[in-house]
Amino acid sequence: MATLKPFKAFRPKPEFAAEVAAKPYDVLNSDEARKEVQGHPLSFLHVGKPEIDLDPSIDHYDAKVYLKGKENLQQLISKEILLQDSEPYFYIYAQTMNGNTQYGIVGCASVEEYWNDTIKKHELTRKDKEEDRCNHVRVTNAHTGPIFLTYPDNTEINSLVAELVTQKPENDHTASDGVRHQSWVIKEKRIIEKLQTLFGSVKNFYVADGHHRSAAAAIVGKERAKANPHHKGDEEYNYFLAVCFPANQLRIMDYNRVVKDLNGLTKEEFFAKCKENFTITKSQIPVHPNEKGEFGVYIEGEWFTMEADETLLDQSDPVENLDVAILQRYVLESILGIKDIRTDKRIDFVGGIRGLSELEKRVNSGEMKLAFSMFPTSIHELISIADAGKIMPPKSTWFEPKLRDGLFIHFLD
Hints:
Layout: E1 4-5, E2 10-12, H1 17-20, H2 30-36, H3 45-48, H4 63-78, E3 82-84, E4 90-97, E5 100-110, H5 111-115, E6 119-120, H6 127-140, E7 142-143, E8 147-151, H7 155-164, E9 171-174, E10 180-186, H8 189-199, E11 205-209, H9 211-227, E12 239-246, E13 252-253, E14 255-259, H10 267-274, E15 278-283, E16 294-299, E17 302-308, H11 323-333, E18 347-351, H12 356-364, E19 370-373, H13 379-387, E20 398-399, E21 410-411
Parallel strand pairs: 6-11, 8-12
Antiparallel strand pairs: 1-5, 2-3, 4-5, 4-10, 5-12, 7-21, 8-11, 9-10, 13-20, 14-18, 14-19, 15-17, 16-17, 16-19
């Protein structure tokens, strides 16, 4: 069964929360982050992406980068922008986007349960990105960005949270992107103990977003345990910062693809090969797929709808049945020659939050030759694949809204 533990969070004073809260380190590149922090010296991007405060030529994995992150974090603490709670608490973190609100419990999940697969994963991680986040944790001695976990709906947890959020939130602000962020502190021991008991009946947590951060937390936790001759198992490094949301409240957006070339084919030759497995129809409007097996294609200023033959939908295998897997197998690999989308430089990915206009922009600029718009993977598919012990193809899910960094920080000791 899953473990969620209260902890003594470092949190921004309520009057600073809106300025401190920042997008996760991995949704902005360094140039975008530099622009984002202009006029915002308290932004937590200075901690999560500290290369923005160094010469742009620096290697992002240079030791100086992590030391700068530690320095920036310590400054926020020394200036009392961030304060630590005196007792271990749980917290509620709510996000509202486009009229939909999701309520998560903030606490610490177990490193041991990460390794024994009580916390289930659905993506492979890249070693370079793992090591980057490991170094960030090692040097700052903190988990500065929460892991986004989900779990099957639990009516008792939902009812308790619904009761608690009737109180006035400690933090309530709307970010520049229109997403509202609210948080409550759960201080009453009776409620904390009840939540721990309720989560103890949850069989599994699932990593929805944050595979590299959770892997890094688990790796560093294991390192700390091995290095401690007096290790007992209850030290803070045995746990990592997480926000746990019930599955029915989550929304997964499309994760679209853009490709640099047609692998030596003309547009007509490309479509001729696609028609072996898909029905293709020209569209007068941008194509946002409405159902599984439907794809949008944008090429040379035109949109097309591409529908997969029913024979491609293999219901017996939850991975092979994913739209991203169908596109990979029958188009990207077999026609365009893109064998490994994790490493091939001819393909890139665009989160659905950027809209179909971003796909048009990337193609119209000449940077890319064509774009594919996707039907979103469902949370049910994610859980089914994780339960089966299988791995999704890379870039299968895009969760929105993104959790903000800086609202809760967990130190390893």
